Amino acid sequence: MKEFLKKKNIEISLKRYGIDALGAMAQGLFCSLLIGTIINTLGTQFHIPFLMATVATIGGVDYTVGGMASAMSGPAMAVAIGYALKCPPLVLFSMITVGFASNALGGAGGPLAVLFVAIISAEFGKAVSKETKIDILVTPLVTIGVGMFLSWLIAPPIGAAASSVGKLIMWATDLQPLLMGILVSVIVGIALTLPISSAAICAALSLTGLAGGAAVAGCCAQMIGFAVISYKENKMGGLISQGIGTSMLQMGNIVKNPRIWIAPIVASAITGPIATCVFQLNMNGAPVSSGMGTCGFVGPLGVYTGWVNDIAAGTKAAITAKDWIGLVLICFVLPAVITPLIHMVVVKMGWVKEGDMKLAK
Question: Would strands 56-58 and 61-63 be described as parallel, antiparallel, or unpaired?
Answer without folding.
Answer: antiparallel
